[in-house]
Amino acid sequence: MSTVGETLKVLHPLVAKYLRNERMPHMACPGCGIGQVVHATLLAIDELGLTPKNTVWVQGVGCSSRITYSTWMGDNVDAHHGRIFAVATGLKMARPDMNFILFTGDGDCGAIGGNHFIHACRRNLDVTAILFNNGIYGMTGGQVAPTSPLGAVTTTTPYGNIEDPFDMCQLAVAAGASYVARWRSTDFKAMVNSIKKGIQTKGLAFIEVLLQCPTNFGRYVLKTSQAQDVLKWIKEHSVSKKEAEKLSKEELAGKYLLGEFVYRPERSGIVERYQDFLKKHQKE
Amino acid sequence: MPSAIKPGKYFVQGDEAIAEGAIAAGCRFFAGYPITPSSETSETMARRLPEVGGVCLQMEDELASIHAVGAASVGGLKAMTISSGPGISLKLEGLGWGIKNEIPYVVVDIQRAGPSNGVATRVGQGDFYTIRYGSAGGNNCLIALSPKSTQEAFDLTIECFNLSEIFRCPVFLLSDETVGHTRELLVIPQDSQLNVMKRIKPTVPPDKFVMYPLDTPGVINYPFPNIGEGYGICVSPYTHTPKGYASTAQDIQEKMARRLVLKITENLEKLVRVERQKMEDADFAVIAYGGNARPAVAAVDMAREKGMKVGFFRPIIVWPFPDGEVLQVAENVKTILVCELNIDGQLSREVSRAAKGKAEVYHLGSGGVEPHLPSQILSEIRRLYK
């Protein structure tokens, strides 16, 4: 039986250049937004001249991670569920000279790994973390996430979600990350520029992407199997920071703000502070 | 260049000796979370590691610290974390990641009286099975050494680091509050007298290197390339192929499970470490480990003074359990008394299993807080001695 990749024998030039061709085709569902985010990440990597030799991809557990894991031509480190920021801390402190790009999900980062995320932001660990927010647990089959909208029907909220969703960007800003932004998977250019900016920022860069999950969010929350319906829902439920200024509190209810929420490259982080600290205290 | 090792004689706690042993072994990354009675090690590492250019972090919790330690080792630094009781329960979540990916690092457990928070400042020996079987999913064969003194805390910490490199796995130092807080003589030898392993590096190019040698499960002294060395390593919690690609295939799962167990069980002779005292003519053996070995030795001496042929046996390596050596004891004595600081009987259960009915095995347990008194053990010997 041949796979799509074997049939086509054609790879996107960025995939051919940076991803393990033997790992293609990837395992994302049809219509999933993860490919768009990976595309934007690869373009940012390419434009900045990062290489498999000096860059590591780090994942957690969930769609964001399982789909991107072991696809990067360089080193790939996949953590237990929620432990991505703890693992990234060990990696970055051991190899401060290398670039670390983290792919995490809303369950990984916002639920089971929430505390590690908060403290990585507080330490302002110099890594670029991309949050794939699909508003649901995709890999496990459509359970409610801490980012699921109020009222969402999921496999574990059959009568509707009674909890408010987590604003992960606000959390990152409050906890001290150097750079925080949110985009939609369709905001391609903004995503690329934002990821580039994040990689170049000393300290923790946190970029949240709202992306479509037709398989689970579509099926359970929106009762559709079509990616475009989910994209339409995301469009209707998101607004740029600038547009938001013109809207009332009521009009903003249940809407995601898009844009950059903080950019403070002057804020030092644990990596450079530790290097300065060693200069003072190292005896050999 | 001054040495990281500070040779000399010191009057220190076991917890401090562990930190010095780690630094002597080349540990350059430590992450922990404060917990009594292990915090003295963290404090010593916080003071000493910066001096030698290492990284010491106090993390947000036990999970973060063990995961950061595993990751730092993947990054190329020898690494260690430490905890006790309730903290060890949490650490075990991260242990599986280290086992699965064959990551060398050291975990120290300064046992205290449990379960749950128990008595934070006082001794217990209840984690014997916890560390061995606590990481979910099985398919694992843990290595754990247990010191009885400050000197051994130093020496065995170095051995734990060496074994973690040889076997490519996390290794436990299973200590307890008695050893951790006992202040006694520590002799740190010259650099040249220490046997310290360096991480083994691949000698073949990346395209020829197999990260996970699933087809040669018993192989040890196997290289571990770190990130940034051009080997494009893949580390993952999922069952993975020799390259590290996640797999759901039964044959891969089978091979991986066998690899994780057989690399240890096929090399047991390299692991056996036991102590015997007065066993040559003994017809009664007292078995204890860790800090509780100290009153046990005293009780054996007292029994000898009273003319009873009693000997002492101690597993220094507690996992894998030295079955052959315990069987040998059982074949040579009529009675074995196991003294340990738990009521449920953990070491004694292993001794009973290994003894294969060749001797009668008795359990002298205690809930902890205090180690056994030599007189308690002696009166039990007198009751059981035939």
Average pLDDT of chain A works out at 96
The share of residues in helices of chain B is 25-40%
CATH classification, class level of the largest domain in chain B: Alpha Beta
Unreliable spans of chain B are: none
At CATH level 3, the topology of chain A is Rossmann fold
Instruction: Profile the largest sheet of chain A.
Output: 8 strands, mixed
Separate helix tally of chain B: 12
CATH topology of the largest domain in chain B: Rossmann fold
Elements of chain B, N to C (H/E)? EHEHEHEHEEHEHEHEEHEEHEEHEHEH
- In whole angstroms, how far apart are the ends of chain A? 61 Å
Cα-based radius of gyration of chain A, to the nearest Å:
19 Å
What percent of residues of chain B are in strands?
A: 15-25%
Number of domains of chain B: 2
Beta strand count of chain B = 16
**Which whole number gives the mean pLDDT of chain B?**
97
Furnish the topology, listing elements before pairings:
The complex is a heterodimer of chains A (284) and B (386).
Chain A: H1 4-8, H2 13-18, H3 34-48, E1 55-59, H4 63-66, E2 75-78, H5 84-94, E3 99-105, H6 106-112, H7 114-123, E4 128-133, E5 136-137, E6 143-144, H8 168-175, E7 179-184, H9 188-200, E8 205-210, H10 214-222, H11 227-236, E9 238-240, H12 241-244, H13 249-252, E10 256-263, H14 270-281
Parallel strand pairs in A: 1-2, 1-3, 3-4, 4-8, 7-8, 9-10
Antiparallel strand pairs in A: 5-6, 7-10
Helix pairs in contact in A: 3-9, 6-7, 7-8, 10-11
Chain B: E1 8-13, H1 14-24, E2 27-32, H2 39-48, E3 55-58, H3 62-74, E4 78-83, H4 85-100, E5 105-113, E6 119-123, H5 128-133, E7 143-145, H6 150-167, E8 170-176, H7 177-181, E9 183-188, E10 234-235, H8 250-265, E11 274-277, E12 284-287, H9 293-305, E13 310-315, E14 317-319, H10 323-332, E15 335-340, H11 347-355, E16 360-365, H12 374-384
Parallel strand pairs in B: 2-3, 2-4, 4-5, 5-8, 7-8, 12-13, 12-15, 15-16
Antiparallel strand pairs in B: 1-9, 5-6, 7-14, 11-13
Helix pairs in contact in B: 1-2, 1-6, 3-4, 9-12, 10-11
